[in-house]
Design goal:
mainly alpha; 2 domains; 508 residues
Length: 508
């Protein structure tokens, strides 16, 4: 059931109606039933893995809490509970690794030993990375004493399977999401209006921006030699596609959750206004970044072996630089993991390390950069310098996308070469606009440009603190309803004629 389909909108409408007419005490049961219905409709076989992850995390947390509460010796209790924690994490991530990376290993072993090993026919369940990270975070929170283990397996099942976050996140935290799922929700007209508007905005980004941009990005990257004069446009189209697809899907899901009075964590905050790569990752896929920071980077940085490594670094590099080196190493490990999380390919690993290396070098060389600005009399508080930092970061980010969307490292470097050595914008007009052919290409490109300008305008307003959606939702109900209806009806008319493709981050 695609989030861009009329069937999904009908599903939402019926579910909202049922949710608010049933007794308050069974509202969460309605959400649980709807979430499993939504998930099983996508793939009945994948439900086995969802149940497996739910059971492992639920019982693992109960066992850990029982050991921690019953042990007279806190140290021994922690040690015993840690065994359950490690076992549960291995079972959870082991399932993810087997399904997601087994064939990657088989392919590389085959190439290394020049063998002919057949890949396995494995399914990749919808949203498996998201609910695996979510349950792993819950287990760690229980182990660290940040949360109490849930005693009702059905309520916990709702936390794991809540359908608005299953397709592509955001990655929820138990302490903030669970209370909202099981509390009583009265009908809130304001929340409904904001939810509908957010769904419409998400559909605009997905069905107009992402879908049209994908037509041209796919064509250029599928045949880079033929379209060598517009390689840079292929990259920019991919950027529009990726942002429109991912953030648009998140908007639809956050809007859907809002219809039930539930607030999911924000996942994007005007990422292309970032002034550095690290700032970009504080604005892009925010819940993944904070999850990595809280559950990977901090524990890694504070671990015993990293502490010993830090002492060695301070002796070798001095006190100031020595403190930074362990943080940089932790960053590299985190982005290596992020790269693998994005996909089982060397491209993704290279993309992750690219981000990690730049952030690490920026941290290590921060003092040298400050000294250089001082010598060149650069005012880093000026508006011009601020714009320069945004533009510089945008270029750095886009270079990384070459490795994200190219078929191989060789193709990525060839595309980079074409981008700086060849330029022929007229080649854009030779790309067919789907069933409408090349005759419609100028109109499709104009639609895409106007859509991007609308997105840019809204982003500038939001960056300056203007709450656009909230202001529109404050209008009288008839005006908001009419605007939402017009948007939802018109959006498919301005997108490509073909059915919208699936979301790029759905199979992560």
């Amino acid at each position: 059931m695609s989030m861009t389909s009329s069937l999904f909108l009908i599903f939402l409408l019926l579910l909202v109606f049922i949710f608010y007419i049933v007794p308050h005490k069974v509202q969460w049961i309605v959400l649980l039933a709807a979430s499993y219905a939504y998930y099983l409709a996508a793939s009945p076989a994948a439900g086995i893995f969802l149940l497996y992850s739910t059971a492992v995390s639920f019982f693992g947390a109960l066992f850990m809490e029982r050991i921690l509460s019953s042990s007279s010796d806190r140290k021994e209790g922690k040690k015993a509970a840690r065994k359950y924690l490690i076992l549960c994490l291995l079972l959870d991530f082991g399932m993810l690794a087997f399904l997601k990376y087994t064939n990657f290993l088989i392919i590389n072993i085959s190439r290394l030993f020049r063998a002919d090993i057949s890949v396995l026919k494995l399914i990749l369940p919808l949203g498996i990375s998201y609910y695996t990270f979510q349950t792993a975070g819950y287990l760690l929170d229980v182990y660290w004493g940040r949360a109490e283990a849930e005693k009702n397996i059905f309520r916990f099942a709702l936390f794991v399977s809540f359908f608005p976050q299953m397709v592509q996140g955001p990655i929820g935290r138990y302490h903030s999401l669970m209370p909202q799922l099981v509390k009583v929700h009265d009908f809130d007209g304001q929340a409904i209006k904001e939810g509908v508007l957010r769904i419409a905005w998400g559909l605009f980004k997905k069905m107009i921006l992402a879908e049209w941009a994908a037509v041209y990005a796919d064509a250029i990257f599928a045949d880079p030699d033929r379209y060598s004069g517009i390689a840079v446009f292929g990259l920019l189209m991919y950027t529009v596609q990726l942002y429109g697809d991912f953030s648009g899907g998140i908007d639809v899901m956050l809007g859907a959750a809002s219809l039930f009075g539930i607030t999911l964590d924000e996942n994007f905050r005007q990422p292309f206004f970032a002034t550095s790569l690290s700032n970009f990752w504080q604005r892009w896929h925010i819940t993944l970044g904070t999850w990595m920071k809280d559950y990977v980077m901090y524990p890694l940085t504070l671990s015993r072996w990293m502490s010993r490594f830090g002492k060695s670094c301070r002796k070798i590099f001095g006190k100031k630089k020595g403190r930074l080196v362990p943080v940089c190493v932790s960053n590299l490990i985190v982005f290596f993991v992020v790269g693998i999380w994005h996909g089982a390919s060397w491209n993704n690993i290279g993309w992750g390390l690219y981000n990690g290396v730049i952030i690490a070098l920026s941290s290590l060389l921060a003092g040298e950069f400050a000294l250089m600005k001082e010598k060149l009399h650069i005012n880093d508080k000026s508006r011009g310098y601020h714009f320069f930092m945004i533009a510089r970061t945008f270029v750095i980010i886009n270079i990384s996308w070459y490795f994200d969307c190219a078929a191989s490292f060789v193709q990525a470097f060839r595309m980079i070469k074409y981008s700086v050595t060849r330029f022929n914008p007229g080649e854009l007009l030779t790309i067919s606009s789907g069933k409408l052919g090349t005759a419609y290409t100028p109109y499709a490109l104009a639609t895409l440009v106007i859509g991007c300008l609308i997105l840019l305008t809204v982003s500038i307003l939001k960056e300056n603190g203007v709450k656009v959606r909230e202001r529109i939702a404050a209008l009288p109900v008839p005006a908001t309803a009419l605007l939402s209806l017009v948007l939802i009806v018109l959006i498919p008319m301005f997108g490509p004629m073909a059915a919208a493709r699936g979301f790029m981050y759905a199979q992560f």
